[in-house]
Amino acid sequence: MHKLRSIHHFGLFVVFGFILFLASNRVDELRVYQGASVAVFVIAIASLILLTGYSGQVSVGQGALMALGAYGAAVVRNELHVPILLSFFVAVLVAAVGGALLGAAAARLSGPYLAGTTLALAIGIPPLANQFSILGGEQGLAFDVGNPPARLGEDFTQYKWFFWIAALAALISMWLLSNILRSRYGRNWRAGRSNEVAAQLSGINTGRSKILAFTLSAGIAGLAGALLSMTIGTVSPSAFTYNLSLMLLAGAFVSGVSTLSGVMIGAVVLVGIPEIADVVANRIGSSENISTNLPGFLNYALLILTVLFVPNGPVEQHHARQARKAAMKKIKSLPKPSMEGNT
Amino acid sequence: MSLVVSHLTVHHGAICAVNDVSFTLTQGELTAVIGANGAGKTTLLRTLSGLNKATQGSATWKEQDLLHSKPEHLVRSGISHVSEGKAVIPELTVAENLDLGAIWRRNKKERILTRDEVVSIFPRLGERLAQRADTLSGGERQMLAIGRALMSKPQLLLLDEPSLGLAPLIIEQIFQTIRELTTAMGLTVVLVEQNAMGALKIADTGIVLNLGSVAISGNAASLIADAQVRAAYLGY
Amino acid sequence: MIQFINTTLIGITAGSIYALMAIALVLVWRSTRVINFAQARMALLSTYFGYEAMVRTNSFWIALLVAMLGGGLFAAIIELVFMRFLLKRSASGPIASVAPIIATLGLYGVIRAVTASIWGGQELQIVAPVSNVGYSIGTETLVFSPLKLLILISVGVLVLLLSLLFQKTNIGLALRASAFSPEIASLSGIKVDLVRTLGWSLAGAVGAMAGMFQTVDGTGTFSPDSIGFTLLFVSGFIAAVIGGLESLVGAVIGGLLLGLVISFVLMYISSSLFFIAPFLVLLLVLFIRPQGIIGVKAARRA
Question: What are the chain B neighbours of C191 within 8 Å (beta carbons)?
């Protein structure tokens, strides 16, 4: 049964991929580029869903982990001229190592202490790049994935190439991740999140489990970071400010942080909001001040509304409501307890 | 009839904790509410003091509705609730804990007078006024909790398991003091207890709760003599 | 020698500003058990209020007063309108402990967007009431200036006033009682909701002072993205954690300690550690003494 499910899901992913292939041939360049961004955000948000949703560790520092991956990939590519695939692997590795270290440090923290620590990290790590010349300083490093291979034809633009790499990476990592989340590890994370003591009492090594979550999540974030830099063309501190970390957190919660199913929602929101904001700002003919800040405002207002009204995310909220209705029905149909005597 | 509770029903989510409970108390009456764990005793008190919301029914004290006000307002109407578990604030001193009880009262002189009264009822507290409450023994903490409740000059006193976790000798003292206070100050008291015998001995009337409903009620002495009550709660 | 004195004085002054932010965070924590990630943003908004007052009256002190009043009022509104609703909705469920963090982060973003929309991205200036030129001792010039002295004195006075408020007044007792045990406080006749709003209001005012002093002591200018305010939050947070999150005294000690440590690290080890130093200090503290220097409760798993 389990095997059937994962095959079934893989099938879904393949179908989805095929649809994307068809679609990308028909849309204009801007959309293709945005598609690449969506794919990148899907991966980044998924890393947060793993870390915060499943393992319950709130991190406001995912951007820093993305930066680790991006720099890792860029340095390796520029200094050692490795093929693109290898540089992405390095990105995952470097970020994962960083994540493991951070996880070890953070395993004893929770709640606001963890959030504050990761925030301090998000602020502190990117500027470090300015200290080491190999990391390119303020302007950063160039990160070039090269041109699309010739056999894909002449119309295959650079952006389409970005999109395809990113989308493929997203599909593969989502499939892998969803299987991991469904496995014993996923259950351990969930158990540790809802009641750490109870989890420990049932034999789960919660400390190791948390570090594993951090490591894996960081690796995934590292991949996203490398992909992000791919789309921009450079790796620099300014691409990985703490604002990015906050936005990712927002995206994760808007998608419903405790389940992978809604991850596309968050990614689309993050990419779509600047677009919508643009349109709205133009429509009402507002000042430059307002139009620059409208995307941020919408993003965070949406986050607040989500936390207030749909705290578990749209997908899980829906499921929970169904479950509650079923449970209420069951309770009402139970016979009333007897009134006579007791011990 | 000062305290009138009529068809009171309280739910915790889908579970019914207090089920159609009705009783009345006259002024100056001390009633013991006994029953097993989970019988709804604490929920009953918490509903009367405004901490929990009732689903149905009514409760009035001297014709004033108890069910739709916040606890801080009911205190001003003369209702004091000593919640279970030695309800003091450990980080504050004894004096501060006591002052807390009278914090809403305007007249400073009266507050000082009341504090002197409380200290004369519980002299042990008077010796420890400047100490932090977490340095007190269990019995002293319970005295402090009751003392704090008295600081607001209540007319209706709700006590939730004051004997819990205390040594037998102290329990006797506490029950004795509660009885004396009730008579001396003309208080109306609802005493929730697991220590059924001790409570019934000092009470005028008793109410037995079982799974949220009133199983039996009446004169305290007759409840002590009642065979069913004896078997179920008094252990003999 | 002079360098040592300078480093110490810089550290203490910066530390006193961190202490203010830490106090604000502790006040909010005690009244609502929430770390307000938007506290520095609210301080920024208050600084804008101060700026507007400054522009109209040319008096720093009036500007400071306006900033604090405005900050306090704004904080009270946020608590009334936003936090109460949030805390009621998120009382249970897997998201319960996390919701306030996310919500205040969202608040951070919204306040930032709104302030940037209203006042734009440019640097605005607030003029200090006294000079920031260091005192001279013989031929040497200290970094310590009349302005820094003023800041230290102001912070000291504020801390004193707050202590008096908490320890000697009924309102202070009500604030403390509500923080330690809301239920007992309520049963004692304290209007716990009002007290909570008051806690936030005080925090807003204190944070406003931090924002104004921070601006004036630094470059004298500020903007929505001033790195100073971002670091102010992080530093205030770390200082609050060092101090144990539960006491004002702890917050002050935490702030001063942090200020000194960072100052010495930057001067004697490397100035490029500017951004990462707070993180390292935080890690160190959380490992060595997670309950803080003063704090009694090991609340980091709260």
Answer: 70, 72
| Residue in A337, A339, A343 nearest the CB of B36 | A343
C-alpha span between C240 and C247 (Å, rounded): 9
Quick one: average pLDDT of B117-136? 90
Q: Which amino acid is at C237?
A: F
Domain that holds residue A132: 27-262
Could you tell me if residue C301 is inside a domain?
Answer: no
Angle at C242 between CA C241 and CA C247, to 5 degrees: 75
Taking the Cβ of residue A111 and every Cβ of chain C, the question of whether any pair is shorter than 8 Å is answered with yes
Which of C83, C102, C286, C301 has the most A C-beta neighbours within 10 Å, making it the best mutation to test the interface with A?
A: C102
pLDDT of C17: 94
pLDDT of B56 higher than 70: yes
pLDDT tens, B194-213?
888 899 999 999 999 888 88
CA distance A341 to chain B (A): 8
* Cβ pair B103:C173 closer than 8 A: yes
pTM of the model: 0.84
Q: Angle, to 10 degrees, between the axis of helix C2-32 and the axis of helix C39-57?
A: 110
pLDDT band at residue A18, thresholds of 50, 70 and 90? low
The boundaries of the domain holding residue C121 are: 21-241
Taking only the tens place, the pLDDT of each residue in C122-132 is 888 888 887 77
Nearest to C286 by CA among C245, C233, C230, C228: C245
Q: Is B18 within 8 Å of B31 (Cβ atoms)? A: no
The single-letter code of the amino acid at A183 is: S
Please state the ipTM of this predicted complex. 0.89
- Neighbors of chain C by Cβ distance (3+ pairs < 8 Å): A, B
- Provide the Cα torsion A150, A151, A154, A158; round to 10°: -60
What are the phi and psi torsion angles at C277 (to 5°)?
-55, -45
* Highest mean predicted confidence (pLDDT) among A162-166, C38-42, C178-182, C276-280: C38-42
- A278 lies in some domain: no
Q: Which residues of B touch C248 (CB under 8 A)?
A: none
Residue C202 domain-assigned (yes or no):
yes
* Number of domains forming the structure of chain C: 1
What total number of domains does chain A contain? 1
**What's the CA gap between A191 and B223, in Å, rounded?**
49
